[in-house]
Amino acid sequence: MRFAGHNATINYYINILTFKFTLNNSLELSQNEDINLRLRTLNLIRWIAVLGQFSAVVIAFFYFQIVFNIYICILLILLSVTLNIAVSVLYPLTKILNYNETFFYLVFDLIQLVSLLYLTGGLTNPFCVLILAPLVIAATYLDFRRTVLITVVAIISLNFLAYYYFPLESITLGIGKDDFSGFEIFLIWSALVITSIFITAYCFRVADDSRKTRQALRQSQLSLSNEEQVSALMSLTAAAVHELGTPLSTISIINKELVNNNKDGVLGEDLLVIQSQLERCKEILERLRSNNLSDKSNEFINQLNFVRLINEIVSPYDNDKIKFDIFFDDYFERDKVVIPRSAELVHSLTNIIDNAFKYAINSVEISLKNEQEKIIIEIVDDGPGFASEIYPFLGEPYLRNNRDKNKEGLGLGLFISKNLLAKSLGEIKFLYRKNKGGCVQVILIKSALGLQNE
């Protein structure tokens, strides 16, 4: 029963580690996806467009008796139908399209629509506003280069339709070929071109901000997963060290008795080799214990003193060039100020301290302050501080300024920290101090850390 319990403990940590590794891989794969636009969505939009085009052509020709070449129009609509059916047969509707596939899909729809408008009055056809539809989709889902390219194609098409088209006429509606003057067509053209540029820029900016936020959130999930994966690995190591200690000691005792009873002969030599290897195993376990991954690892992994946590995070950065000074109230010297080793807290503080280390010139000061219901961690560096032009936007993803040119990273650190802490632990405040270095306050709620209010 004892060994069964040991196996269950180790298997538990192995399962945690395996789950974190799987989650880590899935998050990395999701980061490589260009867009999340499925083939089903574009196919549905095209079927709606086909139905609308066919209805408009039939009603205009037979009911309003508008004169145009209905046969070529039907052929263009059938071309769209054929392509839609072919794509549905060749590819699963759940297929996620990449940038190029979506781009060519939208370009085809745009050219097909322009061809219909060419046969049915050009810009004098009220349905010419539908040229904006592919632009909205492109601006929402495509990257900047392809969005600009498809917008250019649309504007060129509008220029073409302003001069080249078959005019509409209908005795029933009293429409003649020369009812629209050149100035009226120019006004329609101007309105459509301006609207195309405006709506594309507007939709792209909104969608781009949304994409950056999603990518940053995925990055924060990945970072948190890595932190939890390390904790799981520590737990696995601690469990293995703890469980291996007893059986190795038992084997060592028995082997020593066998050595004493078989000092002579080949068997005695083999037993001495076994004893030496057992001693080596003990040394390895002792080395792991000295690295805080043994019997005391529950404190290291699950519960630890607040000041010790800060020291652990700071230790990789403290060097001869940048000095770290840690100040704290008497409150933090108490043994009861023990907090869970939260991956969110560790990773958030690491990001903020790393940011201070990057921009510090000589020193970084970390102050721990106790208040009635919260703990305030103030991190101050003696660097150039936050630039005034980016200060209102601190904490947003992919925020960079001129001083970041020689710095590594994507500017995600503060965004990740802000979002991880905002889940339940507290909040982050950025204090603007002109030419006095950067200052970040991490405000933690005591109840969220399992600490009592005072």
Provide structural commentary.
By secondary structure, the chain is α+β, with helices and mostly antiparallel strands. It has three domains: 2-22 and 231-299; 33-180, no CATH class; 302-449, Histidine kinase-like ATPase, C-terminal domain (Heat Shock Protein 90, 2-Layer Sandwich). It has 13 helices and seven strands. It has helices at 2-31, 39-63, 70-90, 99-119, 132-141, 144-163, 182-261, 265-290, 297-301, 306-314, 343-359, 413-422, 446-449, and strands spanning 303-305, 323-328, 338-340, 363-370, 374-381, 426-431, 439-445. The chain has a five-stranded mixed β-sheet with strand order 2-4-5-7-6. Strands 1-3 form a two-stranded antiparallel ribbon. A hairpin with a 7-residue loop joins strand 6 and strand 7.
Are there runs of 5+ residues with pLDDT below 50, and where?
A: 1-10, 19-23, 25-34, 292-301, 405-410
Percentage of residues assigned to helices = 55-70%
Task: Indicate the mean pLDDT.
Answer: 80
Q: Cα distance, first to last residue? A: 46 Å
E-strand count: 7
Strand-residue fraction? 5-15%
Global Rg: 34 Å
Number of helices: 13
Helix-and-strand structural type: alpha+beta
Return the domain count: 3
Can you tell me the overall shape? Answer: elongated
SSE sequence, one letter per element: HHHHHHHHHEHEEHEEHEEH
